[in-house]
Amino acid sequence: MTKPLSFDFTATQLDAVAEFSGQVAVFVESSGKLDQTARRVNRLTKGALERFAESSAFADIEPGQARELVFPTGLEATGIIVAKLDRKPDAKTARKAGSAIGKATGKSGLLVLGGNIARVAEIAEGIALRAYTYSDQKSVQPDPMGGVTFMVNKPEEAASAAAGPLAVAEGVFFTRDLTNAPANHLTTEEFANQLAAMQNLGLKVQVLDEGELEKLGMRTLLCVGQGSDAPSKVVVMEWNGGGDEAPFALVGKGVVFDTGGISLKPAGGMEDMTMDMGGAGVVAGVMRAIALRGAKANVVGLVGLVENMPGPNATRPGDVVTSMKGDTVEIINTDAEGRLVLADVLWYAQERFQPCGMINLATLTGAIIIGLGHEKAGVFSNSDALSADFLKAAADEDEGAWRMPLDPAYDKLLKSRIADMKNVGGRAAGSITAGQFLQRFVKDDMPWAHLDIAGVASVASDTAYAPKGATGWGVRALNRMIADNYED
Ligand code: BES
Ligand code: MN
Ligand code: ZN
């Protein structure tokens, strides 16, 4: 997998600055004030930094943004990345400044002159998150990124504060790699293998094959994959870092490719459906993050891995299938397949683990993109407390999320003449009827939230913390929600 930049926190040593041959990053306060480290850079460059800090080019950038002064006189460095940031920034601005530095970082190594700046962990997190490139499919691999030397006045404190966020960044990279991977590479089997490999990190991983899923009665999940040669799988990842309390469950939609099935999608843009496993990718990234940072919580992650293809054995519109729960579903549209996968995995998660709460993630509906665009995921929940916990964590991590309604009034749209329900409700309120469908597979007293991430899992332009493509949205918010609410 793509590894985040490696970080080394060391004591400030201003004499090393002149000889450093990569890029040097410095922070300048919004007032234009230079601290001790920036003053050294200014002196070495014969006043270049001060001229920049007093220019309209500097006045025009926001706190958290950066500009690079290239090939400076007086330094060996190839460039000075100047970030506008006050000495005591808030977490979000600090992360943004880090991200601006990460975006500008090249291959030759980075020396960050932090001095006594606050929020070093968030700055490091921002650098790590933004310095990501997906190159697995390029025949010529780019030179590996040089490491980051972060000079600060209290290096031990900085290193221990940054350890957690940097572990989480590795989880985010795992999610991005999975979500960016083409469907002929990331098959259901390859996906399951990559999850099984996380046993190295102390996770317990179990892969259920089609025979076992059949025995469990997971017909709504299996009917999605039966047009494909790729075998359907459910992977269960357990992290037991807590006591003997019930685990929190994360459930992900892992459609490695969604053609729509017999209800075939139009050709234009169909290639984007390689990201239709994004929900499962986030679950995988969170499990990796909590294992790497040794979270003191019990968390179980379950993903349903299938490929939705047309074929002689594919499910037809009009077919009726029986879920593991026992409810029957009339399949009106084989392109509404994510909810069929999740129905069985949600039910299985509750039956097997009796979790204390449950969140599922899915690139579930195009309609959520119409509603919320690419800035915010839709949050559907039967619990005000759980949704408040999640929305707070998402806000703290600067990951967009917005609560949407669930209401029994929408249930009539899912009525079937011949079965217990149909799998689509029609064009109106398409994301809500999808949520209502899922809720039928959630027990009444189970605190649960459904995150529709169709608009945020992979995007066509750069975001604050990621280059275009897979974002890894949700890994940081869920990790924080677990840390804030389920760890002692
Ligand atoms: N995977 C799609 C949803 C999607 C659309 C994800 C765009 C990412 C970007 C999902 O399986 C789907 O096809 N949903 C249908 C549901 C409809 C048939 C009720 C949709 O949104 O059109
Ligand atoms: Mn679909
Ligand atoms: Zn889909």
Which ions, cofactors or small ligands are bound in this entry? ligand BES, manganese (II) ion, zinc ion
State the end-to-end distance.
31 Å
Q: Which band does the percent of strand residues land in?
A: 15-25%
| Arithmetic mean pLDDT | 98
List low-confidence stretches.
none
Explained architecture:
With 488 residues, the protein is α/β, with parallel strands linked by helices. The protein has helices spanning 36-44, 48-53, 56-59, 91-104, 120-130, 155-180, 188-196, 210-216, 219-225, 278-292, 338-353, 367-372, 384-396, 430-439, 475-485; strands spanning 7-11, 23-28, 66-70, 79-84, 110-115, 148-152, 204-208, 233-240, 248-258, 298-308, 320-322, 328-330, 357-362, 377-381, 401-403, 421-422, 448-452, 458-459, 469-470. The strands form four sheets. Strands 7-8-10-9-13-17-14-15 form an eight-stranded mixed sheet, with helices on both faces. Strands 1-6-5-2-4-3 form a six-stranded mixed sheet, sandwiched between helices. Strands 11-12-16 form a three-stranded mixed sheet, with helices on one face. Strand 14, helix 13 and strand 15 (401-403) form a beta-alpha-beta unit. The model has no long low-confidence stretch (mean pLDDT 98). Bound molecules: ligand BES, manganese (II) ion and zinc ion. Ligand BES binds next to loops. Residues 258, 276, 333, 335-338, 363-367, 424, 430, 454 line the site of ligand BES.
